[in-house]
Amino acid sequence: MKKLLLGLFLLAALIAVSYLKMERDSEREAQAFIDGHDIGSRNAELAMIDVDSLEKLIDQKATEVIELRSAMTDTLVERDNFYTQTVDSLSAIIEAGQKEIASLEKQVASGGLEAKDSSSKIKVASKASHREILKHYKLAVAKLPADLSAYEYRVAVAEVRSDTATKFNITVVRLNEIRDANNLDY
Predict the structure, then answer these.
(1) Cα–Cα separations (whole angstroms), residue 3 to 7, 10, 11, 15, 17
(2) Alpha-carbon gap, residue 59 to 160, rounded angstroms
(3) Whole-model pTM over 0.70
(4) Which of 25, 104, 106, 118 is the most exposed place for a label (fewest CB within 10 A)?
């Protein structure tokens, strides 16, 4: 019976030691869980501070973007208004120019314009008939001396062209067009 009692005592001691060990491990796990939870809570609090500061930064940047868009929109509207005014004023200038051109064309068609001379106004036929222009030109070329060299003749004809254009208030280019239309090669 001593052996039985000793066996039961050892068994009870073994169970008590196992129970205490299990209790201790359980307390350690509970403490580790609590410590882990506390560390996690602190980390979460620190992360929330960062998140809050990031949210404030995001809100600030969003506000800046809205302000920039508003400023850009205002600038674009101002630019568009400026271009619209410029286009409108250019349209008005072009229209006034076209009216003036039409008026001048009517004056030319009706028989003449007044040209300004440094001393006085001289009435000049701005659109003399091609026949009159060609008649004057041919007569002036015919009056050139016959003994001119080829070079002198070309220079003299160029002067006649210039003088004829000036007299009839047209450009030399226009005179050349009239000459070409009437098959004059000199």
Answers:
(1) 6, 10, 12, 18, 20
(2) 83
(3) no
(4) 118
